[in-house]
Design goal:
Largest sheet: 7 strands, mixed
Number of strands: 15
Strand order of the largest sheet: 2-8-7-6-5-3-4
Helix content: 40-55%
Order of helices and strands: HHEHHEHEHEHEHEHEEHHHEEEEHEEEH
Shape: globular
Strand content: 5-15%
Number of helices: 14
Distance between the termini: 45 Å
Structural class: alpha/beta
């Protein structure tokens, strides 16, 4: 009954694990959920009031498929002013979350068999979005030796006559790495020379820490902007995950095609959510957002310092953006966790949830099977308790291994 495309499509592992952890909590289990890409801060008052005003004023009907014009203009203005990525309102399409913007971009840009260059580790949905659009994901492995970043030579070596898109994600999910401007310029040079389109997922662009500086690919110059589709949304910066407001900005023909596609699938984003987004962009709570970024930085440092003290876990790279840490767990392989020998990040994560009630995401679906992704959006006290539970879990596994002679 199912199409081959649907039959081959696995569920999102991050969404499934988050749902499982939340269900355990609803069932009364004392579980600490560190799987989620969702901050625990409330949606700003400006957005909430904008949504309420839309309801009370009767703005509850369909809008233009590409989004209401004032919101498109507001997104373009923010990209221009905050990220130095000059866009006009007609070069922006509002979508049902940034995930739909990415999916629409691939559906619009790819013909069957066209190739998309994607670095690994990568967000779990990137390859599947490409496949659903009829394209072929071409994975570029990265590691500690490159700071988990794509190198220009590695990109150039994988370009074929079928290559159409270079996908960039900075700050990165799951590693938290932030590309420097010079690094993006070098990648853009390779892409332009080969006539590729750059799809740049910049959903975490406002969340960078310490000496890291976010650079929007579209800010690199007119020629680069002309071949770039910039994807973002309000979910992360403004804690509006459930409102489902994303956007894509790019050359007008591409944006128009994306809007046409959207018109035949989901139609426009929620009218209420669009007005909430417009309100928060017009009256942006700058001081509050600065405090939230500082709070996330504090949690980042707490988690990174705690991980450095856990035997068998090694931080793959220090995260400078987004809100995830990516840890290598090969040092735990061979330990006996309640009768099951840890042999992969998957068994580590499974036993950690079963015995310590801490939920993390194993890295196989990120293209890194020996790592786990840990979110640090939880409050400091919760993160501290999670680290304590992981420490106890590792201690017990180590002692059990010694006692039983497990290998």
């Amino acid at each position: 009954m199912l199409s081959r495309r649907a039959a081959r499509l696995p569920p999102s592992s991050t969404a499934a694990l988050d749902a499982h952890a939340k269900q355990l909590a609803e069932d009364g289990v004392d579980v600490i959920n560190l799987t989620s890409g969702e901050v625990d801060f409330p949606t700003p008052d400006q957005a909430c009031e904008g949504g309420i005003n839309a309801i009370t004023s009767g703005f509850t009907r369909y809008t233009a498929v590409a989004g209401i014009s004032p919101l498109r203009q507001a997104v373009a203005a923010r990209l221009t002013q905050a990220w130095n990525a000059p866009y006009l309102g007609e070069e922006v399409v509002i979508t049902n979350g940034a995930k739909q913007a990415l999916a629409n971009a691939f559906m619009t840009l790819l013909d069957p068999g066209d190739e998309v260059l994607i670095q690994a580790p990568h967000w779990v949905s990137f390859p599947h979005m490409v496949t659903l659009a009829g394209g072929t994901p071409v994975i570029i492995p990265t590691g500690p030796d490159t700071g988990f970043k794509m190198m220009p030579q590695a990109v150039a070596e994988r370009i074929t006559p079928r290559t159409r898109v270079l996908l960039v994600n900075s700050p990165s999910n799951p590693t938290g790495v932030v590309y420097e401007r010079a690094e993006l310029e070098a990648l853009a040079e390779v892409a332009l020379r080969a006539g590729l389109t750059i799809v740049s997922d910049e959903i975490y662009g406002d969340l960078v820490y310490e000496d890291a500086r976010f650079t929007s690919v579209a800010s690199l110059g007119h020629d680069v902007r002309a071949r770039t589709v910039t994807v973002g949304g309000l979910s992360k910066t403004f804690a509006m995950t459930g409102w489902r407001v994303g956007f894509a900005a790019g050359p007008e023909p591409v944006v128009s095609a994306m809007a046409a596609l959207q018109g035949h699938t989901t139609s426009a984003a929620s009218s209420i959510s669009q007005h909430a987004a417009l309100a928060v962009l017009h009256d942006e709570p700058v001081a509050e957002l600065r405090w939230r970024r500082s709070a996330l930085d504090e949690r980042r440092r707490l988690l990174c310092e705690g991980l450095s003290e856990l035997p068998g876990l090694r931080l793959a790279v220090e995260p400078k953006g987004a809100f995830f840490a990516f840890a290598d767990v090969t040092g735990t392989y061979g330990l006996d966790a309640h009768g099951e020998t840890i042999s992969s990040a998957a068994t580590f994560a499974d036993q950690l949830l079963r015995t310590a009630r801490v939920a993390v995401v194993p890295g196989a679906d990120f293209g890194a099977p020996h790592h786990i992704r840990i979110s640090y959006v939880a409050a400091p006290g919760v993160l501290g308790e999670a680290l304590s539970r992981i420490q106890n879990f590792l201690t017990a596994a180590s002692e059990n291994t010694v006692t039983t002679g497990s290998r």
